[in-house]
Amino acid sequence: MAVEMLSYIDRQSPVHRLTGGTKLLCLLFWSSAAMMTYDTRILIFLVLASVWIFAISKIKLKEIAFVLIFIMLFLLINSIAIYIFSPQEGVEIYGTSHVLFELGGRYNVTLEELFYLFNVNMKYFAVIPAAILFIVTTNPSEFAASLNRIGISYRISYSVALALRYIPDIQRDFRNIALAQQARGIDLSRKEKLAKRIKNAGSIIVPLILSSLDKIEIISNAMELRAFGKNNKRTWYRARPFQKIDYVTLTLFVIMLLITIFITFHDGNRFYNPFV
Amino acid sequence: MQRKHLSIKTIVAIGIGAAVFVILGRFASIPTGIPNTQIETSYGFLALMSIIFGPIAGALIGLIGHALKDLIFYGSIWWSWVVVSGLVGLLIGLAWRKIDIESGIFNTKKIITFNVVQVIVQAFGWFVVAPFLDVQIYAEPANKVYLQGLIAGAANIVTVGVIGTLLLLAYAKTRTQSGSLDKDI
Amino acid sequence: MKKTVIQFENFSFKYRSQAKPTLNDINLTIYEGEKVLIVGPSGSGKSTLGHCLNGLVPFSYKGEISGSLEIMGEETRNLDIFALSKNIGTVLQDPDGQFIGLTVAEDIAFALENDCIPQKQMVDTVTEVSRMVDMENFLDSSLHRLSGGQKQRVSLAGVMVDKVDILLFDEPLANLDPATGRHAIELIDRIQKETETTVVIIEHRLEDVLHCHVDRIIVIDEGRIVSDQTPDELLASNVLENCYIREPLYLKAAKYAGCEVTAEMKPSHMSSFAINGCKEKLVSWFEKTAPPEKKAETPPILELCDVSFGYHPDHLTIQGISFSINKGEMVSIVGKNGAGKSTLSKLICGFEKLSSGRILYSGQDITKDTIKERSLRIGMVLQNPNQMISKHMIYDEVALGLIIRGVPEHEVKERVERTLKICGLYPFRNWPISALSFGQKKRVTIASILALEAEVIILDEPTAGQDFRHYTEMMEFLCELNRQGITVIMITHDMHLMLEYTPRTIVIAGGKKIDDDSAVNVLTDSEIINQANLKETSLFELALRAEISEPREFVERFIAFDREVRQKWL
């Protein structure tokens, strides 16, 4: 069960040099922009810009290929689903209909539908590199400090740190429990009927959950003994001060967000319409 | 000692809870046979945590757990669904005082309360909020996202109804004192 | 007169959920710079005493306190847990639970962060403290990559950053292999001398702690202090035996031989123990004690032929291991953390696929068999029973595997009941598992494996975290299973377990088999001991010093004799 997951990749690059707080804010601005707009010109700009940022981060494509393959597959299925459910969605949005192939009534392929699907996919493409970069260029140790830095209470920030710290432990526990239960004949694969499979899953998740609940008590004691929560704030060993590059980057991203909002909404329509 | 903020135990519960949510979400989903529809055991767990630790913990476990799962394994975040996970954790958590699982009693009446709450909360979350956000954010066709919401919501309602209830029963039993047990010779 | 740092006066404590007080009328004074060891069986209240010192009682575990406890002259009830943590630094026993940071440096800095110490100063302090515990080259390492001993160093550093007056160690040796345990004790000793702190150690591995000097030993039993003396005085008495605490083996041997042990003989350490007066008694005891019976040879049941495995193709965790285990044997697999012991057991159960080699069961090749197929023959018991238990009632848990395999109901009932009887759980069959002790839960997990009629069981650290009496109960239970024909393989780093219960030991180091011999021969071979992080048994040294002609044979006879004696406890 060597499932790959994204994790921090240590390199020297301008993207790595930014503090975690800056990157988190930028990710939020970036995904807000991509979520709000349907303006094709902005989407193309966002996609090209994120490809460029990806290039300067010195992360290699093959290091994240497994995620990309998954996302491509997801987007393909998603596009097909949209077409099946609403083949004329594009016509409705753009108000015109240029039929390319006749497939009979509703399912006629229109230029508008293809353009609409192109836009939907561009929206995802605009965010994916940014999100991946955030995970692979932010040292998890710095992550909690950055959350705290951008105004989230340190207690909640610390919960995130704990989650990151314990994901590998819990994954190992899960694997051990699953194997030990399989050895007792418990089968989770498709060979079993659904009802039985749910029951069988219970015999893995119940021990996992109950033993994780035991952990909560041990960890809280350990934290209490070392005076967590004593003051209204705390310092962070791995925090990094904001540098000039952080301020510059943030300013650029804010400007980008404002321009996006302006261009998208100035004519009262989220969509860029090339058909009129 | 009265403290205004979250107790250390709640903070740890959020952290560990989010980690377990990530692992269950990634490794313990059971395919139902219907495409793209899975029994997400992680929501049964989320309901358990909401009832034990309350609405704030529930909301944050859903939010942090789901966001981390998306980021780490899929390299992107589906905000509309992440928000709903947090919302479901929050709203189920509102029933924690009423159910009071720490008392060790989880009788038929409480089981019904829990299930009524989870059905209403999840129906609202998956049938209404998630598709609404999908339409707003991604401008996907309404009929597609509402159908997706319907299938996922129905699956999650069943999951929480079965697995969530079983987990709560199992947990409640660990709260009872051993008391006067006699050996049967 | 030295300054008093800890003073209990008529102190009692009762947990809110319990009917009777856990600590009764404790009177105890500890002075500045002292090194005090607290011993006692499980459930004696020794851990609760530790919790009272660091403030977990009453701030985290609620209950009723009567009497007084002053630390550094202040009544603890008037302080809070934060103020207490400035005076007392606690090193907890569970290494996974107490590491909160992602990396070594962050974990050491945790208390400083909570104190809002500026970053610059924090970095300096962390560097300084990590140097004291020899971890300065690991500051950026992830905690998952550390060995047990290194983890302990980190947790010690984590409490030392506060310049505490008192260091409290709660079972520091649990989970450590013998050699690492010895280093840990030496480290504690060195730190105490360098920083002149007061040290309180709670631990039941008495002989290991006594490796370095201890000023006083407090014995707690049933919530009361039953002894408060110097190590020499305590060891000359019979307090320990009455409380079921394991005495140092060399001392036990001397007592069996009929030697009169007095405090003047300095029995607290093997090297200082004056045995000239009882050499003759030891020799004559050796001569009149019968050698243990040897078991008859049986055909092999499990054979590993040149087995290799690696999680990555270019890095093999297991390299060409071969051995054969005969039916009805009781074997231990030992080696330091990360040597490949657990991986080996996973390969045998089919949890991982071999890179090369073969595994035979009763002469049949089972290399290609699935986990499920192998589980009918070989059962695996995890270290933590909570990770295996999913049912509420004992009966249901043991029946689970049978029901899933579709065994008819009446047969399930018969097999479960038979297994429960073998495991001594039959009277409890209608109990909820949550009402059982740790050791009993472990028996439930063993029962659930045996119900499948496995003929070989593999146990990972079967006695971890259990006191001497529960250890004896568990091991005698496994011996009983063994007598009924079950082949038992144990993965362990408990030297007593190897020596006392497994006639044969397989030693793994760096993924290779480095020895396969009797436990006694392994534990008296200094080269193997070094490679596998073991420790020479003190019995051997005693035998050498007593000039016994066959020192290894002496060790074997002692072990057999001692087990006979302990049978009476059950």
UniProtKB/TrEMBL annotation, chain A:
Keywords: Membrane, Transmembrane, Transmembrane helix. It is a multi-pass membrane protein. It comes from the Bacteria. It is found in: Membrane. The chain crosses the membrane at residues 38-57, 64-85, 114-136, 247-266. This is Energy-coupling factor transporter transmembrane protein EcfT. It comes from Cytobacillus citreus. The lineage of its organism: Bacteria, Bacillati, Bacillota, Bacilli, Bacillales.
Automatic annotation (TrEMBL), chain B:
It is a multi-pass membrane protein. It is found in: Cell membrane. The chain crosses the membrane at residues 6-24, 45-65, 77-99, 111-133, 145-171. It holds the Pfam family ECF-ribofla_trS. Keywords: Cell membrane, Membrane, Transmembrane, Transmembrane helix. Belongs to the UPF0397 family. This is UPF0397 protein KHA94_23565.
Automatic annotation (TrEMBL), chain C:
It is found in: Cell membrane. Its main location: membrane. GO terms for molecular function: ATP binding. CDD domains: ABC_cobalt_CbiO_domain1 (cd03225). Pfam families: ABC_tran (PF00005), DUF3744 (PF12558). SMART domains: AAA. Residues 6-247, 302-535 form the ABC transporter domain. It is a peripheral membrane protein. Gene3D superfamilies: P-loop containing nucleotide triphosphate hydrolases. InterPro entries: AAA+_ATPase, ABC_Co_transporter, ABC_transporter-like_ATP-bd, ABC_transporter-like_CS, ABC_transpr_CbiO/EcfA_su, ECF_ABC_transporter_ATP-bd, P-loop_NTPase. PANTHER family: ABC TRANSPORTER ATP-BINDING PROTEIN BC_2655-RELATED, HEAVY METAL TRANSPORTER. Probably part of an ABC transporter complex. Responsible for energy coupling to the transport system. Belongs to the ABC transporter superfamily. This is ABC transporter ATP-binding protein. It comes from Cytobacillus citreus.
